[in-house]
Automatic annotation (TrEMBL):
Protein name: Large ribosomal subunit protein uL23
GO molecular-function terms, A-Z: rRNA binding; structural constituent of ribosome
Subunit structure: Part of the 50S ribosomal subunit. Contacts protein L29, and trigger factor when it is bound to the ribosome.
Physiological role: One of the early assembly proteins it binds 23S rRNA. One of the proteins that surrounds the polypeptide exit tunnel on the outside of the ribosome. Forms the main docking site for trigger factor binding to the ribosome.
Top-level taxon of the source organism: Bacteria
InterPro entries (UniProt xref): Nucleotide-bd_a/b_plait_sf, Ribosomal_uL23-like, Ribosomal_uL23/eL15/eS24_sf
Gene3D superfamilies assigned: 3.30.70.330
Family that this chain belongs to: Belongs to the universal ribosomal protein uL23 family.
Keyword Phosphoprotein part of the UniProt annotation: no
Entry keywords, A to Z: Ribonucleoprotein, Ribosomal protein, RNA-binding, rRNA-binding
One of the Pfam families matching this protein, by short name: Ribosomal_L23
Length: 98
Protein backbone atom coordinates (compact mmCIF):
# COMPACT_ATOMS: atom_id res chain seq x y z
CA UNK A 1 0.00 0.00 0.00
CA UNK A 2 1.46 3.36 -0.97
CA UNK A 3 1.96 6.16 1.58
CA UNK A 4 -0.75 8.34 0.08
CA UNK A 5 -3.44 5.68 0.52
CA UNK A 6 -2.27 5.01 4.11
CA UNK A 7 -3.03 8.62 5.02
CA UNK A 8 -6.33 8.52 3.11
CA UNK A 9 -7.45 5.39 4.99
CA UNK A 10 -6.47 6.59 8.49
CA UNK A 11 -8.01 9.98 9.23
CA UNK A 12 -6.66 9.98 12.79
CA UNK A 13 -7.14 8.54 16.24
CA UNK A 14 -10.58 8.82 17.82
CA UNK A 15 -10.10 10.19 21.32
CA UNK A 16 -12.93 9.61 23.78
CA UNK A 17 -13.47 8.16 27.24
CA UNK A 18 -14.66 4.86 25.78
CA UNK A 19 -11.59 4.67 23.50
CA UNK A 20 -9.30 5.22 26.51
CA UNK A 21 -11.03 2.47 28.51
CA UNK A 22 -10.85 0.03 25.57
CA UNK A 23 -7.16 0.82 25.06
CA UNK A 24 -6.36 0.12 28.72
CA UNK A 25 -8.44 -3.04 29.13
CA UNK A 26 -8.09 -4.94 25.86
CA UNK A 27 -5.13 -3.41 23.99
CA UNK A 28 -7.37 -1.94 21.26
CA UNK A 29 -7.05 1.43 19.58
CA UNK A 30 -9.79 3.42 17.89
CA UNK A 31 -9.29 5.27 14.60
CA UNK A 32 -11.45 7.42 12.37
CA UNK A 33 -11.09 5.91 8.91
CA UNK A 34 -12.32 6.63 5.39
CA UNK A 35 -15.89 5.53 4.74
CA UNK A 36 -14.75 3.40 1.78
CA UNK A 37 -11.86 1.74 3.68
CA UNK A 38 -11.95 -2.04 4.14
CA UNK A 39 -10.76 -3.99 7.18
CA UNK A 40 -7.76 -5.28 5.20
CA UNK A 41 -6.75 -1.75 4.22
CA UNK A 42 -7.05 -0.56 7.82
CA UNK A 43 -4.90 -3.50 8.99
CA UNK A 44 -2.17 -2.80 6.41
CA UNK A 45 -2.22 0.94 7.09
CA UNK A 46 -1.82 0.53 10.88
CA UNK A 47 0.90 -2.10 10.51
CA UNK A 48 2.81 0.02 8.00
CA UNK A 49 2.47 3.34 9.81
CA UNK A 50 2.96 2.26 13.44
CA UNK A 51 5.12 -0.89 12.99
CA UNK A 52 2.87 -3.16 15.12
CA UNK A 53 1.25 -6.57 14.54
CA UNK A 54 -2.53 -6.28 14.18
CA UNK A 55 -4.61 -9.19 15.47
CA UNK A 56 -8.13 -8.04 14.62
CA UNK A 57 -9.99 -5.10 13.04
CA UNK A 58 -13.64 -4.28 13.70
CA UNK A 59 -15.33 -1.46 11.82
CA UNK A 60 -18.61 0.35 12.20
CA UNK A 61 -20.33 3.30 10.60
CA UNK A 62 -21.40 6.14 12.86
CA UNK A 63 -24.55 7.73 11.48
CA UNK A 64 -24.48 11.51 11.35
CA UNK A 65 -26.83 13.30 13.71
CA UNK A 66 -29.61 15.58 12.54
CA UNK A 67 -29.17 19.03 14.05
CA UNK A 68 -31.52 21.98 14.17
CA UNK A 69 -30.32 25.46 13.31
CA UNK A 70 -31.93 28.75 12.32
CA UNK A 71 -32.27 27.58 8.71
CA UNK A 72 -34.11 24.37 9.63
CA UNK A 73 -32.56 20.90 9.85
CA UNK A 74 -29.10 19.86 8.75
CA UNK A 75 -27.29 16.54 8.98
CA UNK A 76 -23.75 15.94 10.19
CA UNK A 77 -21.78 13.60 7.93
CA UNK A 78 -21.68 9.85 8.48
CA UNK A 79 -18.20 8.53 9.31
CA UNK A 80 -16.49 5.22 9.92
CA UNK A 81 -14.71 4.03 13.07
CA UNK A 82 -12.26 1.13 13.36
CA UNK A 83 -11.30 -0.77 16.52
CA UNK A 84 -7.81 -2.23 16.02
CA UNK A 85 -6.47 -4.97 18.33
CA UNK A 86 -2.69 -5.29 18.51
CA UNK A 87 -0.50 -8.06 19.93
CA UNK A 88 -0.04 -8.09 23.71
CA UNK A 89 3.05 -6.16 24.73
CA UNK A 90 2.84 -3.80 21.76
CA UNK A 91 1.36 -0.34 21.86
CA UNK A 92 0.73 2.54 19.50
CA UNK A 93 2.25 5.91 20.30
CA UNK A 94 0.29 8.55 18.40
CA UNK A 95 2.99 11.18 18.90
CA UNK A 96 5.65 9.34 16.87
CA UNK A 97 4.54 7.94 13.53
CA UNK A 98 7.12 6.88 10.94
Amino acid sequence: MNRERVFQVLAGPHVSEKAAVVADQSNQYVFKVAVDATKAEVRRAVEQLFKVDVLNVSTLKVKGKVKRNKFGLSAKPTWKKAYVSVKPGQDIDFTTAD
